[in-house]
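Example record

One chain of 316 residues, shown exactly as stored in the release files.
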Amino acid sequence: NGSLLVSGDSKGEIRVWDGKMGTPKGKPLRGHTKYVSSLAWEPYHNATDCRRICSGSNDGGVRVWDVVAKKCLLSMSGHTKGVTTVKWGCEGLIYSASQDRTIKVWDSEKGILVRELQGHAHWVNGLSLNIDYALRIGPYDHNGNAPADEKERQLVAQEKVKKVLKDNGLQYELLCSCSDDFTCFLWDPVRNKKPIIRMTGHQQPVNKVTYSPDGRYIASASFDNSVRLWHGSSGKFISVFRGHVQDVYMCCWSADSRLLLSASKDSTLVVWNLKTKKIKAQLPGHADEVYAVDWSPDGNKVASGGKDRVLKVWVT
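Predicted C-alpha cells for this chain:
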C-alpha cells in the first residue's frame, strides 16, 4: 500500500522505512548471516495489512518477517548456496532461486517445501511471474488512485491478477527463470515441477528476465549484448533486439506493454518499440555501466542508476 519501504544490506540486515517520509521505523530485522539479495512483499489482495515480507540471502536462507512486530515468522533452509531472487506469488507460494541451480517453491504459511524446480545447469540469476505487474500496483490505477474502502481495494487488486490470467487463457500463475547457463525456463510452478519449455538462443549468461505488464511477453537481458523477446504463455521465441555493444544487465516495461527499456554495460539505455521491433530512442548520459532501471506505473518517468554513482530520472 506504499506506506512502508524495506531494504536489505551487505551485513544481512533488513531495515523498514516510512514510505512517505523516508525515515527509519524501529530497529533493523536481523537473522541473515550474509548479504540480503532480494526482498518481496506479500501480495496486497492476500493481506491488506501489508505486514509480511520475504527475504533471500547469500547465506542460502529464505525468511518471512512481520515488519510491524519486527520478528522472523518463518525460516526456510534447503538451498546449498546463496539465494539470488525471491518472489511471492498469488497462490500463497514463495519462489526462491539460487546459485545451487535450483528454484524452490515454499508454502508461505507453514514454511515447508512444496516442490523443487530443477533444470538449470548453472546459477539461477532471476525470476519473473506473469502477474508481477498486477501484484506490484495492487489496488491502484495508473494515477495512483485506489478505492477508499479496504474490502473494495482488495477486490480491485484481486481482479487485476485474474484479468492477466484470463486474458492469457491461464488458470494459474507462470514463472520464468534465467541462468548463467545461457537459457531461460518457463514453469507452471503451482501444479508441476517439470518445465513447460527450455528457452534457448542466448550466447552468454542471462542476467534478467521480466514479464510484460499484460503477461503476453517475456523479455530476457543477456551478456551477449542482446535482449530477446518470448511468448508469455508458451515460451516460444519471437524476436531478438540488438543495439547495445556490451553486456545488457537489465530490462523493464512501460505500463502499457508497448515499450521495452534495456540498460547496459555500454553506459546507455535503449527504448525498443514492441510493434516495429526496432529502437525507438537511445538515452546516453551515464558516464559508466548502467546497473538498474525501472519504469514508473504511470508511464511518465524512468529511473536509472549506474556505476557512475548517479541516479537519473528521465521523462518519457
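Notes: The radius of gyration is 19 Å.
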